[in-house]
Amino acid sequence: MQLDVFTLFPDAFAWFRDQRHVANALAGGSTFETVDYRATTPLSGGQVDDTPFGGGAGMVLRVDVVEAALRARYGIDPVELRARRRVVALTPAGRLLDDALVDELAAEPALTLLCGRYEGFDERIVEHFASDAVSIGRYVLAGGELAAMVLADAVLRKLPGALGHAESAQEESFSAALERMPEYPHYTRPAEWRGWAVPDVLLSGHHARVREWRLEQSRRRAAAQD
Ligand code: 6GU
Known about the structure:
Elements: E1 2-7, H1 14-17, H2 20-27, E2 31-36, E3 49-50, E4 60-61, H3 63-74, H4 78-84, E5 86-96, H5 99-106, E6 110-114, H6 123-129, E7 132-135, H7 145-156, E8 192-193, E9 196-197, H8 200-203, H9 207-225
Helix pairs in contact: 5-7
This protein binds 6-chloroguanine.
């Protein structure tokens, strides 16, 4: 997968890029690149945002700035770009990110993530340049960078070779294999600590019973989450 992140803070992604599963994905032929909106802004003094029409607090990322950055990177009209590849605007008003959407995005050959400014994007960016608007939860972050990292983390770990064990991403929380339920609890040694014993069934070596117990635990957790 070719993953591009447009941001005002490219340095914020240095730590992320060094994560094991990200490094593994990159070693497997994927790319992860950041593009700085400021590098191609048509405005003077490195300006990229502006005050909102109609008033209100904060600054809004300008549509002309994002157009220039996308054109410089891809060499085509961004309106045409979004018909050719997924361009995801990270915004709290977007579609909630879940495992099903992560699977959908992980199947793409290329993804572009657009991070907004404090008060977000000029809406014309979302409407005309983005194919998707995605939120990572019902709360507000100061910028889209952490949300972009969350999305990129969830997507890249799904790629072949990103995780040590191919099975790790198969049966995990919210996967189809677990019927979209949260994952069951895990235990390791010691089998008892301060009187807290690991459930007997896990030590029984009885695979069918273990499987049954785990599914039941997932169902309980699912019920508790709703
Ligand atoms: Cl994608 N961006 C921002 N700024 N805040 C968020 C978010 C995104 N998702 C949840 N909160």
